[in-house]
Amino acid sequence: MAVQTFAAIYIGSYEVSIKIFEITSKKIHKVDHLRSRLELGRDVYRSGSIGYQLVDELCEILKEFSRVIKEYGVSHYEAYASVIFHSASNELFLLDQIRLRTGIEVQVLSNSEHRFISYKSVAGRPEFEEIIAQSAAFVDIGGASMQITLFKKGNLITTQQLEMGTIRMRELLADRGKTLAQYQNQLEEYIQKKLETLMQLYLKENVAYVVLMGDYCTELMKNVAKDDARECVVKGEKLIKYISKLQKKTIQEISKELNLSNRNDPLIVPSMILCKVLVSNFGGEKVWIPGLNIHDGIAYDYAYKNKIIKGYHDFDQDVLSAARHLSEHYGSYSEHLNALQDIAGQIFDAMKRIHGLSKRERLLLQVAAILHDCGKYVSFVNSPGMAYHIVMASEIIGLSHRERQIVALTILYNNNELDDYEDISVELDQEGYLIIAKLAAILRVANALDQSHKQKFKRLRIALKERELVCTVESLEDISLEQALFASKTKFFENVYSIKPVLKEKRVYLVE
Hints:
The chain is of the alpha/beta class. It is 50% helix and 18% strand. It has 21 helices and 14 strands. A 6-stranded mixed sheet has the order 8-7-6-9-11-10, sandwiched between helices. It has a 5-stranded mixed sheet with strand order 3-2-1-4-5, with helices on both faces. A 3-stranded mixed sheet has the order 12-13-14. A hairpin with a 2-residue loop joins strand 12 (457-465) and strand 13. Helix 6 (166-173) packs across helix 11 (268-282), helix 9 packs antiparallel against helix 11 (268-282) and helix 17 (383-393) runs antiparallel to helix 18 (401-415). The longest helix is centred in the middle third of the chain and has 23 residues, at 180-202. The termini are far apart. The mean pLDDT is 91.
């Protein structure tokens, strides 16, 4: 059995760390984990940039990691930095210094990319499917923010970012309470208030499981569930009681009890209060703390993409499920969207050797079909523009920022005239521009085939014949509306592909 040694490096808002893994087709095994405290986030929050002293410290840490990589004979590594880098005014210079001084290429993650990688580490576990089968809240706690992803009956409902990370809250409230008890009360009240709207919109009933990821969560689990630590599951009520007990102690006493390396760790208090309030609000009967972090997600992502391991979870279905619930949230989900998604997929498949797009772009087309009407919730006159803003402002776990932009622009140009590339080249490269044009062209034809939103066709066959895309329909209903508007709605498709869509009707007669 072939074994690959892999290293995952992560530069977070308060810590720089590396995990070494051995990867086989059977499992991903952690070999070593090195961590170094470095509060980059504090500099960014206070001054807007990362100071030269911290840059020097960061580069020295990464040089040490380079030596570790060589010592372990690592065959491949990936290095990522948190979204906090995007908030630093000297981001580009910092990344250049890291590359020149350490030889390590660092990729800065957007929030959606970061959370998806972390989510993969948990969703890749076989027990995950059982946990989300009822209802679950997956919470990923970071230094700058946290991500809450809700599941019901195995389907992803929504994912939301809340700016309530441990460092952010410490910077906001640590100096405002005269005593530790006051500080803790302020944290509880602040978190409670921030969760109110989320609870009102998405949580009408308690969840069966709360899944917690983040620093200090594992330490809490070890002390709460000493008799069953391997399963990493504890009753929600038991965890709440234990944290309430810890709140009566000093930070030094808490750090000692949890066996933290820093006996005066300032982030333990906001972290444990977050866990307590989240579990209490979600009403989680059970809490699962799998003890994983973003490094495990990076390793899983590498192994899965390189086909070393097989995945347990269908992440594409998460994307589609999130899109459907977002559409429902804005009152636009209907049978028309189901039909449109299916028709668009048929056209995409028929045009495979012409458009040169991949399975991933097919998924983006499906998401665009599901969300293309959501803008009507805001404006009927400017529905495409409103839909664009809704998609760009929404988190769809599994889609990167660029992919979300492609979906949003595909929806925009489903109705609006496509802008010249020069007019939008600042936010989009040529490859992205071509993808959007191709997807929007397909979506326009799909819409033209269900112009009445009544799904009139009993059967639809789509085939590419020479320079024509022949859409043969069988219907018992009058399709004169679709026929009348088809040519005008499909002109853009002809311009993009140099192929003419043709609508043909095959008569269907009722036999009495």
